[in-house]
Amino acid sequence: MSLDRSDVEKIAHLARLNIAGQDIQEYAENLSSILDLVDQMQAINTDDIAPMAHPMDAIQRLRIDEVTEGNQRDHLQTVAPAVEAGLFQVPKVIE
Amino acid sequence: MLDKTLAELAQGLAAGEFSSTELTQSYLDRIKAEDGALNSFITVTEEQALSQAQAADQRRAAGDAGPFTGLPIAHKDIFCTEGVRTSCGSRMLDNFISPYNATVIENFNRAGAVSLGKTNMDEFAMGSSNESSFYGPARNPWNTECVPGGSSGGSAAAIAGGLVPGATGTDTGGSIRQPAALCGITGLKPTYGRVSRYGMIAYASSLDQGGPMARTAEDTAIMLNVMAGFDPKDSTSIDKAVPDYTLTLNDSLKGLKIGLPKEYFSDEIDPQITAQVQAAIKEFEALGATVKEVSLPNSHLAIPAYYIIAPAEASSNLSRFDGVRYGYRCNDPVDLEDMYKRSRGEGFGEEVKRRIMVGTYALSEGFYDAYYKKALQIRRLIQQDFVNVLTEVDIIMGPTTPHPAFKLGEKTSDPVAMYMEDIFTISLNLAGMPGMSIPCGFANGLPVGLQLIGNYFAEQRLLNAAHQFQQATEWHRQTPAR
Amino acid sequence: MEWEAVIGLEIHAQLATKSKIFSGASTAFGAEPNTQACAVDLALPGTLPVFNAEALRMAVLFGLAIDAEIGYTSVFDRKNYFYPDLPKGYQTSQLFHPIVGTGHVDIELEDGTTKRVGVTRAHLEEDAGKSLHEEFPSMTGIDLNRAGTPLLEIVSEPDMRSAEEAVAYVKKIHSIVTNLGICDGNMSQGSFRCDCNVSVRYKGEEKFGNRTETKNINSFRFIEKAIKGEIERQIDLLEDGGTITQETRLYDANKDETRSMRSKEEANDYRYFPCPDLLPIVIDDEYVEKLRSTLPELPDARKARFIEQYQLSEYDAMVLSAYRDLSHYFETTANIAADAKLAANWVMGELSKHLNQNDTEITASPVSAEMLGGLLLRIKDNTITGKIAKQVFEAMWAGEGSADEVIEAKGLKQVTDTGAIEAMVDEVIAANKPQVDQYVSAEPDKRGKMIGFFMGKVMQASQGKANPGQVQGLLKQKLDALANS
After folding, report:
1. Which terminus of chain A, N or C, has fewer Cβ atoms within 10 Å?
2. What is the CATH number of domain C418-484?
3. pTM of the model
4. Domain CATH code at residue A9
5. Is position B17 within any domain?
6. CB of C80 within 8 Å of any CB in chain B?
């Protein structure tokens, strides 16, 4: 599997990553070699194998429906890049 | 008092030979003097450490000390520590003062532990050499030209260098065991779900597991006693009683069945490593164990499956780093998309971006079945291999790594070559079973690690075997020239 | 050729849990921005989700209410996309294994028939936060209080063929979720929202046309208007030789039209995969059967009972059975008054009028069911007339006390004393000579109608308190006597 520049650009956009133009080629080569590595999987027939998303076949535990968290806004917003009137600020979104 | 094990320090504190404050100050002094060469710490929390030490001394004076009270350790900078920078080795979180504590941190706080600081690591735990850290690589105390391994390279280097007697690590594909091997210390990756992941910044959620790193198996048992346990805040945490891991350390190994996977003893491994590992196995036979050859036929598929599953989960786990609520935000974004792309483009390093892109690609439309689903199927095959073998034997043994520590920069230009260093460790994360690395000799003056693998929740057995080996050998007592 | 609309709906119902689906933060509406967003809701590094038991119970209850297949093993998946009010960069949802599978509801059509509408699935997911675009000149503000509120997304089959059917379906789902107590149904606060998928085709054709999705409509009336407008727009476009673009549209209630949302530059690629921080939710028969035994009476069953038990008309039964509180009010009133038809008329008439005019919930009505029942008793025992009763109701609404208190205080008791009524009748006959003459000279079969005039006069003279039956009887007797003399 080999990726070209436009593949890398498309993936970088999906992942919202700015990649400098001069680095795209190197990314394309590195990603292609990683995909060559993982393509070894294709040699194995896994038709009857159930996918395993978690190491143990454990099941979800349930939380009792109760409010345990109070207002922590000031504390949690100390690490925010931009806050005004209690709202996180981002560049204007045009819909 | 430095250079003692945690067990010895605990005795010293209990006997009143020294106070936690004295002990803590000595370590802080040594870090100040010597970490310039190792770069094993990202943040040293001197003030906090001393106040924790004082509190521990008071607790001891009040007769309220537990086994861990007053013992100094360090935490991999992946565990969120309230009021202290938690960078995850990334520019993205260089300004992140965590507003809360990870459960593991809470556990150590409750036990009265002293935290000296936060240790260096590969960025977001993605790496096998510590070279992807935003703060520059940590260095191997046995040869500072060499890498300490990764991603918990800072913890391993700090312990081997005598800057701290024990430290936490995390292991997603070998990140505790591989640096432990390369630095000549002891590291344990517990069963998946044994140690809470809450507050441990996620790389690949279904593979990540926190664990202890120290000089000896006994010390890792003492640390695991504090770290392990059910956490209602982590859905993947297992609700199962935690034994006292120190109680079974001295059990006899008579009749212990050891399996040696033929796949772990191929020609591609450094012959000196193979020789040291075989010598260690002889030692186990001398201690009463029996040995047989076994097979893990799907071993060669572990790295391919891992490099789909881990990047896929990472690509999603790392989407929260968007410059909106915390972390790095680029200067003067022209619009929202620019803010996203430059904050993430500038905030993440190359290896992190590479893995995010691989994962994004593997999950994208049309590729899910061929990559992600396929990898999950392979994962089951790999798990079944271990389940099958572990019905025949108690512990699987082999080398932790195919080579000893390599030179800084040697593999940075070839990511795939770097990935191959995790060939013996990675499969265990896919299966979710516990594994350890213990020192078992040297190759060209660099430490060699022996890996021990057990069944789910067989930590006691692994620690027992490792401890008995360490009672009979001196490899774990070797320290690099200072 | 005749056009036919094909409509499918996605309804998002916020589940009425106290805390969020994956965190212990409150879900209460209307708090100051970001005061109900905890570390988990903010997706701080290292935080993890734990699933709310109540959200599971509510989703399964809904599945049982619509006779659906229950997902004994359901799985949370991640839907990955970037948006500032989506803190984790993915929405936790259920794509591959939803908690509720195929089910159905029956809707009543205008012609009195019922139609079965299929529900494809209903799955659990988390709500996003809110982006506030108007607060700041060059920035958008993000409030994450709503982030992580549990949602049940209910997806219908494309079974509806008109805006009216769509609204009937939405109302049915609305009445089911509110009856179950799993959603407060408040559309203006966004607790119950609807996305409408609309396409048109020639009648008889099997293939679907290209569809548009109109997002987040929050009232029954807007749903009807938006769909009607969209059907018209599509037909006009096709008849002019155009084509329909598959797109997302927004309904602008002020202009009563839908408009295209700025089309996204790339086709969405959500990269769904099972959430590794959550494990499969596994439930068993015991859990399901225990819940089934807690199912309250649902609108369809109640409607049938109302028809059977109270002999209500199909229409009255449908209206009165739709909501638990309304049904309860009706039944309480009917039982006190021992007259279901009268109670139905008053609940659907006077009471509903007042509730609507004052924008009041029935649970907050100043006239309780017990009070209304008391009033109806006074109509039944002829203490007051129906007309006076409306006056009493007004006074009760204004807080002037019970029916008996109002009747007493205002002296509204009906006059049944024959002598007093007779005097008033005689007075009216004497005072209206020309009308009496007309009556006398009219054909006998026309006289019945003319009596109304005298009725009005007598009732006026009695200030509405004379017993209308007695007045009528006396008038007829006396006027006919004049005519026959």
Report:
1. C
2. 1.10.10.410
3. 0.91
4. 1.10.20
5. yes
6. yes
